[in-house]
Amino acid sequence: MLLSCGGGSNLKRVLVISRGPATIDKDAKTITVTSGSSSEEQTVDFDTKDKVTLQINSQAGKATVDLDSPGYYVVNAKPDTIVGSYQHYGAPPTETQTYTQEFLKKQLDSLQKLIKDSNVSAANRNYFILPNHAVKVTDNTDAFIVGPFHKMTSIQQEGNKEPEVYRFYMVSEIRETIDHLKSVTTAPPSPNQ
């Protein structure tokens, strides 16, 4: 799901990612997730300079998260960890790209660190979000956040400014990618073995 809207300087935009439908009561500041198997996303805005405290009740139990400053947040209301990072989304490539083994090994190393919550920080623009937790992703409430299971590969650029895009995945999705990268970066056994 892509979301983009303008907002005031006090705006706290929240993308709630849940397994099964989530009921968000903006006035009571509660997020309640019923059982389900589909990945769901909803956005809610709080336009206040005050800290917002949200109560979450999901398959992962009950929790409280605080939104201290204006910006764009992701709330993980799934019972599984989600990870994500800033992505360069521009025009789709017009030529076939060839990746070297060295490049693929760097990608593999980076993904392995990400799912272990290693080298993860706002400065690196990558995120590791445990169940029933929230993370501020950016100050830019006009950024695009792409949730798990979406297959988006490009986004329309407006004017000469590159869009600010963050892509999130379930840890299970990243593990599949890691397994694939391992298979293409590991030499097959020699026939003499």
The total count of helices amounts to 2
Strand order of the largest sheet: 4-1-7-10
Coarse morphology: globular
**Nearest-integer average pLDDT:** 83
User: Total strand count, please?
Assistant: 12
Ranges where pLDDT stays below 50 over 5 or more residues in a row are 1-8
**N/C terminus separation:** 49 Å
What structural class do you assign from the helix and strand content? alpha/beta
Instruction: Give the total of domains.
Output: 1
> Rg from C-alpha positions?
19 Å
Largest sheet: 4 strands, mixed
**Overall helicity:** 10-25%
SSE run: EEEEEEEEHEEEEH
Strand content: 35-45%
Please tell me about this protein's structure:
By secondary structure, this protein is α/β, with parallel strands linked by helices. The protein has one domain (11-94, 118-170). The chain is 16% helix and 37% strand. It has a four-stranded mixed beta sheet with strand order 4-1-7-10, with no helix packed on it. Strands 2-3-5-6 form a four-stranded mixed beta sheet, with no helix packed on it. A hairpin with a 2-residue loop joins strand 5 (52-58) and strand 6. Helix 1 runs antiparallel to helix 2. The longest helix has 15 residues, at 101-115. The radius of gyration is 19 Å and the shape is globular. The model is unreliable at 1-8 (pLDDT under 50).
